Amino acid sequence: MPFGIVPRMMINEIDGVDWGSMSHAYGPASDVPGWLKGMASADPGVREEAFSGFCNAAHHQGGVYPCTAASLPFLFEMADSPATPDRGSVIGLLLSIGRECLDMDPEAVYFMTDGTESRAHVDALAVIGGRAEAFVRWVADPGLEVRRSAIEGLGLFLDDAARAVEVLRGLLPGDGVVERLLVVRAVATVALRDPAVQGAAAGWLDALAGDTTQPPEVRLAALVHRVRCTPGELGEAVVPAAVGLIREIAPEETGGDDGASCRAGAEAGVAAGSEPSSGVPPQIVAAFEDLERHGRVHAPTTSLLEAFHTVLGDRVLERTALLAEQLSSADPGVRYDAIRMAKDVVGRWRGDHSGLVVLIAGCLLPEDAYTSAAAAEALGALGPVSEPAREALAGYVEAARAEHGPGVWAARERLVRRAHQEAVRSLACLGDLRALPCVLEALDEGTDAWRAVQVAGHLVGAAGDLTPRLSKLLAEVEFADPSQSMSANALVSALRELGDRAAAPALTRAVVAAVREEQWHTVASALKALASFGPGAAFALDVVRPLADAQDVTVRAAATAALWELEGCAADVLPRLIELLDTHEHDEAAAVLGRIGSAGAPALPRLRKMLTAGYEWTRVYAAAALWDIGGDAEAPAVVETLLTAWAENDATSNHVLACLNRMGPAARPALPRVREELTLLRRSGRFRSIPHDEDLLAACRSVTARI
Q1: DSSP 349
Q2: Distance (Å, rounded) from C-alpha 164 to C-alpha 154?
Q3: pTM of the full predicted structure?
């Protein structure tokens, strides 16, 4: 490796550290000196590999190890040297380490991967604090990236808060909007960590927010960070003032090197769109592309608006008003980043979000595929709440087909293709058959067919068209290839959702093939799909029955459930189900026992015992089965168990409400808690997802209506 830029004295000092006695996330830290030297290499490829290696091991997921702390003096030396090629990245690494240390408990002792105790975060923070004067030098550096990286460090680490504020205020007349926004944020950071300067900082921010000679972005930053310093003083005039400033932001004012434009983001998207590597499931490749894309920022004001939304918290109406202005901004970068923020608000908070949904749909512009893709993807994530966007999605899909032809699903232009696919998928998730031609095209032609498979199950009205195609694709799966398991399970899931019994033969063949290759997860999924068809799939019993004795517990539970659904013989499955109650598949067994009903009475003693389990989910499944089998006689214990589990873990709420809804008047003692749920602002339900929360609210309304 070419380490010629690294001073010889520094190399000797690095080599003089006993790195082998320390560890990082993956073992001994003997590779750290090579990474440190590589960071100062003249070769960009070597530098990239060095930063990546260090961050993945010595700063793994933000971790601070003894070797991380030992590296800090060398990182400071590199950042100080004008000969270092990428000083901004070195300072950025210092900031990342420092931020993590500030977030960690200074009194805590952490355990390393080798089991040793460490307080490296305390040592690291001491090193950074002792050298914080360097940030004062760096904020005056001629290098733009050095200055930008140093501004935050000055706000975080200089002990003398009054001096930090003074230095930062002196930087404000700088030319770049981005730098001025960083200065305003850093002043607020100093005020938050030292109450002694809070009054002076707040006064300066107030004056800056009212200074009409400043760009609207800077005034907006001052307004937001003033509120951030004293959130208790958030008045009714703040959001309207912020809305007014957003209206003043013009597209040309966020151009140049002051911010990443949507055009730059689009170009990055094209560059990132490489073809999937051999053997890597396309779903995995797409997931990593999504992570990269979702990390982009397109406007200088994005981080401060995110901070503003954090301060506003549960003031949903005010956040909605703010987002409405963001989504209507003349600046395409502001609009683009607002899509993600709006999705977050709708996803976290209950209420009538139709206005925001319509505004997101307004970002579906044929001339801007990059933004359209983000809007369509967001609408898909909003699930049933995206209903007001139905016509806009359908219009976008049809316009794309009219402009690019019926093969637009597989368009060569990656941005056009992605935007169209996301719009089709979102439309399909609404069950709209106008998405069908594109879905069929994808399944027939094969390009990105997996994306179509994921949403095909929502198009129940087109099961006659979809089932033969999905069955054919399932028959073509190579079960011996583990990389195809995701595709197999997606196909099985889609066929199950469609509910077309014509899929039963293909699913039966899939069970046989997956058993042969010991793909037990797929076996279980296909068995559950077969079970959903009931007696109409009884011809598969010869395949299903032996699997009820399978060694794999998940397969055994799925096969036992299928036996009941296909054959309906309680005497055959009851002993098996009672045995499964003592396994990790107790939820599946309890659910089947509940469906069996009163004939499942032999399981009642075991189910009652499960009500004392330490795990709340076990108690919920048992309580639901108790009601379904024993009825009114079990009601008091069932309601008490369900309410206790709900209080312990609100993720159980969907299961709890489903049972309470079945109980009708017997669930009356739960009515106060059900009514309380309807008054809560924050989304609940399993995974706090929109579909689960909407189902939860519907169940709450049903329970209150029935009781």
Answers
A1: B
A2: 6
A3: 0.88
Q: What integer pLDDT is reported at residue 599 of this predicted model?
A: 97
d(CA 457, CA 431): 9
Q: Confirm if 78 and 40 have CB atoms less than 8 A apart.
A: yes
CA distance 673 to 697: 13
672-681 confidence digits (pLDDT tens):
999 999 999 9
Judge contact between 688 and 681, C-beta under 8 A: no
**Other CB atoms closer than 10 Å to residue 111's CB: what's the count?**
9
Residue 86 CA to residue 6 CA, distance in Å, equals 12
Q: 33 by DSSP, 3-state: which? A: helix
Match 């030319």 to its residue by tokens. 175
Rounded distance, CA 405 to CA 688, Å?
39
Nearest to 221 by CA among 174, 180, 251, 250: 180
Sign of the four-CA dihedral 130, 135, 137, 143: positive
Enter the tokens of residue 682.
């924050």
Contacts of 357 (CB under 8 A, 6+ apart): 346, 379, 382, 385, 386, 387, 388, 389
In this structure, of 15-29, 264-278, 450-464, the range with the lowest mean pLDDT score is: 264-278
Task: Read off the pLDDT of residues 188-239 as tens digits, 9 standing for 90 and up.
Answer: 999 999 999 999 999 999 999 999 999 999 999 999 999 998 888 888 999 9
Give the residue among 228, 133, 245 at the shortest CA–CA distance from 185: 228
Per DSSP, the residues of 305-338 read HHHHHHHHTT-HHHHHHHHHHHHT-S-HHHHHHH
SS3 117: strand
**What is the C-alpha to C-alpha distance for residues 100 and 125, in angstroms, rounded to an integer?**
9
Beta-carbon contacts of residue 477 (< 8 Å; ≥ 6 apart): 484, 487, 488, 491, 510, 513
Local structure of 612: helix, strand or coil: coil
Query: How is residue 24 annotated by DSSP?
Result: E
Copy the structure tokens of residue 404.
Answer: 């690019």
Range with the lowest mean pLDDT among 104-118, 573-587, 603-617, 619-633?
Answer: 104-118
118 by DSSP, 3-state: which? strand
* pLDDT number for residue 112: 67
Amino acid at 406: P
Q: Residue 498 has which token pair?
A: 């469609």
Collapsing DSSP to helix, strand or coil, 23 comes out as strand
Distance CA 447, CA 315 (A): 44
Residue found under tokens 């909003």: 382
Q: From CA 235, how far away is CA 457, in angstroms rounded?
A: 48
- For CA atoms 84, 88, 92, 95, the dihedral sign is positive
CA nearest to 37, candidates 86, 88, 2, 65: 2
Tell me the CA distances in angstroms from 654 to 60, 621, 643, 646, one per residue in order: 36, 12, 12, 9
The helix (H) or strand (E) run that includes residue 561 is helix 553-567
Which helix (H) or strand (E) element contains residue 28? strand 27-28
Statement: residue 642 has pLDDT above 50: yes
| Cα angle: 407, vertex 400, 474; to 5 degrees | 45
268 pLDDT above the threshold of 80: no
Round to the nearest angstrom and report the end-to-end CA distance of the chain: 75
% of the chain beyond a pLDDT of 70: 93
